[in-house]
Design a protein that fits this description.
By secondary structure, the protein is of the alpha+beta class. It has one domain: Alpha-Beta Plaits (2-Layer Sandwich), CATH 3.30.70.100. About 35% of the residues lie in helices and about 25% in strands.
């Protein structure tokens, strides 16, 4: 079955990881309730690759920051578009999106939608 993935790379201040996690737990419930097939939030544990550009270097983390890699899985891009439209109208998400209370800088978040090419 073809699938579609939204991917995110986010620099998060370590001192705000607990707040980020609380927000992510709430968001995951909304996305799954509204149709996402899977929702993952992953914090960097080993980003010391010598053979490639590491996530921290690529996103230019600042002192005291770590990287969160996140992805949400959908049936297709059309399914993603329907789910995200519903998510953006959900008052639970709106309540979490106060720019003054975000645990990370949204302007530095990397994002993209991806068509699954290989699934093992």
């Amino acid at each position: 079955m073809p699938q579609y993935v939204d991917g995110f790379v986010i620099p998060v201040p370590r001192k705000k990881l607990a707040a980020y996690r609380r927000m992510a737990v709430k968001a995951s419930k909304v996305w799954r309730e509204l149709g996402a097939l899977d929702y993952k939030e992953c914090v960097a544990e080993d980003s010391s690759a010598k053979f490639a550009l590491s996530f921290p270097k690529g996103i230019k983390t600042k002192a005291g920051e770590t990287v969160v890699f996140s992805y949400i899985v959908y049936k297709s891009r059309a399914h993603r578009d329907r789910v995200n439209a519903a998510v953006m109208k959900d008052p639970r998400i709106a309540a979490m999106c106060d720019p003054k209370d975000m645990p990370f800088d949204c302007k530095r978040m990397l994002y993209g939608g991806f068509e699954v090419m290989v699934s093992g």
